[in-house]
Amino acid sequence: MKTVVWTDGSCNANGMHGRGGWAALIEQAGTVREISGRAHGTTHNRMELTAICEALETLTGAIEVRTDSTYVEKCFNQEWHERWLRDDSWKGSNGAVKNRDLWERLFGLVWNGRRDVTFEWIKGHDGDPNNHRVDRLARAAALSDALPDSFAVVEVVETPAPARRRKPRRASWRELPTAEMAAHLLETPTIGDRVWTDEPRLPRETRTAFIRRVLLGEVEAAEVVETETAS
Questions:
Q1: Active-site residue, from 15, 82, 88, 125
Q2: Residues 24, 85, 117: CA angle, nearest 5 degrees
């Protein structure tokens, strides 16, 4: 079963330069877990990377990371890292790659064989409720009074699996009112000869004629009994 992770980072909220927060929401096997933390003297991109690293540290198996950071998503989906790691130069089109320590940590988590990680970019603040949630958590962490580099499991919520839609039960013909049941039997000759009455058929009376008497109210309704089949 694939685990889905939403991540986000925040920095310089409310003009507090260098104060950052990160957050991740992890959906796994019907459980939602939210984690967050903060740091001083940091940047927005470092918080984005930290959020993903912290989430992956707790997971194994198939994982889909949903992030609104093109900085992270393009590194993997447009293979920026291949240019960075060529000859171990760690240089991109704009010079030396920043945040090398966090990139090395992330590459180690993604490529160590214990995880199958994919990255999906989602537009920030565009209606995805989990993206909004991690944005709020990261911002709250950045503005909190907790110690720098602190980490917290914010909340664990058990969420039920989506309910399967069941087709409405079709009423049995035996549950129909007497007149409706008789009409149904007349239209369905393959159904067993059962009607709501204790009264037997008349000698040489055909099944159809007997049901027609039920339909016309000539036979007193009682309970479901089985009459002999038509000859």
A1: 125
A2: 30
